[in-house]
Structure formats: structure tokens, C-alpha cells
Amino acid sequence: EVQLVESGGGLIQPGGSLRLSCAASGFTVSSNYMNWVRQAPGRGLEWVSVIYSGGSTYYADSVKGRFTISRDNSKNTLYLQMNSLRAEDTAVYYCARGVFGSGYLLGYWGQGTLVTVSS
Amino acid sequence: EIVMTQSPATLSVSPGERATLSCRASQSVSSNLAWYQQKPGQAPRLLIYGASTRATGIPARFSGSGSGTEFTLTISSLQSEDFAVYYCQQYNNWPPLFGQGTKLEIK
In terms of Cα–Cα distance, which of B9, B62, B76 is closest to B34? Predict the structure, then answer.
């Protein structure tokens, strides 16, 4: 059974850093396209970043230069390093796996982890 | 980037009736269009991909149609568990943007 479990969220001051983790089971992270999607309170879904099976990475303009997606193959875990955090980064962050050969068609989702950026 | 626009923002429908949700892309996405359902406090769930193919376990009352720039999600005979927010997403081009969502509420 495919499972994705996010962790690492919390309250952080503006300008601070946080690393989110997404532990996967039931499949191999490095063989799949893995994404981060976020949802601000009461708002819609915003795609954040993707890492391809080959290692290429892409980011939304809103986080480019501040966020870094990576994976640890030995731990079968996806990460999102978030630096220079802003109030507008406050959101639930979901990791999601691409399916059916599309990196961005999100067939499996974690339960999400809440990041609150506030002083 | 391709902008996805959903309408209406909120749709009020009675249980047992049919609901029709629309999604428009600012340029063609071929049939690379997905629909997701999200209930309060839950992660989104993939409903439809390829504009019209139901994901595993999705009831037959959910159907999708369209191609190019105009897409529709139809839910026939609404059940209580169908009242939720629905998002469309194009995965034809980068970035894979979502629509702003349609909230389906009980009338």
C-alpha cells in the first residue's frame, strides 16, 4: 500500500528556515516524480516543486531561490528545505506522487503538514 | 503559463440531483486535465484524469468530458459524501497549475 507521511511543520518566524520531510512506503521515491503542493488557509491548491526520477528539479516562481526539493534514497524520503520564509508561505504542505507517467498528475497524497510563518 | 478558471465558485445542489462543474484553460491542454476532490481537513483525492478517465475506486456517477480548453465534471445523483471542493488541474505544461476550485454545497 502506498503511503506518504509528512512531518516537520510548525511555527516559524519570518526569515527563518524549516525542513519538511515526506516518508514514503509501498514504492520507491527515487523511481517516481515527487511533488510538493501547498494550500494556504481557506485558499486553493498551489503547486510548489517537483523532483523527477532522474533528479531534475523545478519550482514555482513564488518559491524559486528560497526552497529546495531533495530526496534521500536510503531513507525513501522526500524533503523540502524552506529558507527565508515569509508570511505568505503559511500553508498546509502536501507531498504527492506523480502517476501514469506524468510527473504532475497527482495520484497519491500525504495528509499534509502545517507551516505557520508568524512573529 | 496556462491559467485555469473554474466556474461557478460555489454551486448549491440538492442531494439526488445532478451537478455540472466547468473548467476552462487559457490555452489548449489537450486531454491532460485532472479533477480532484477535497473534503474539509483532508488531502485532495484524484477523481478524473485524461479529462474523462475515472481513477481507481471512483464511482461511476462521476464523469468528465472535454478537450482543448473546455472541460466539465458531472456528478449525477449527488450523494451526501460528494459535497466538497473540486479542483481542476492541467498537467500538459509546466507549471501544472490548478483552478481556484468550485465548492459544491447542499441546497
Answer: B62
Is pLDDT above 90 for A83? yes
Q: Give the number of C-alpha atoms closer than 13 A to the C-alpha of residue A41, restricted to the C-beta side.
A: 7
Average pLDDT, chain A: 96
Q: What Cα–Cα distance (Å) separates residue A96 from each residue in A14, A111, B102?
A: 26, 10, 21
Q: Is B4 helix (H, G, I), strand (E, B) or coil?
A: strand
Q: Is A104 on the interface with B (CB under 8 A)?
A: yes
How is A6-44 classified by DSSP, letter by letter?
Answer: EE--EEE-TT--EEEEEEEESS-GGGS-EEEEEE-TT--
CB pair distance less than 8 Å for B94 and A46: no
Q: What is the pLDDT of residues A84-101, one digit of tens each?
A: 999 999 999 999 999 988
Whether A93 and A46 have beta carbons less than 8 Å apart is answered as: no
Q: In B, which residues are within 8 Å of A44 by CB distance?
A: 87, 98-101
Upstream peptide bond of B8 is cis (omega within 30 degrees of 0): yes
Which whole number is the average pLDDT over B75-103? Answer: 95
For residue A6, give every residue at least 6 positions away whose Cβ sits within 8 Å of its Cβ, in sequence order, or none. A20, A21, A22, A93, A94, A95, A110, A111, A112, A113
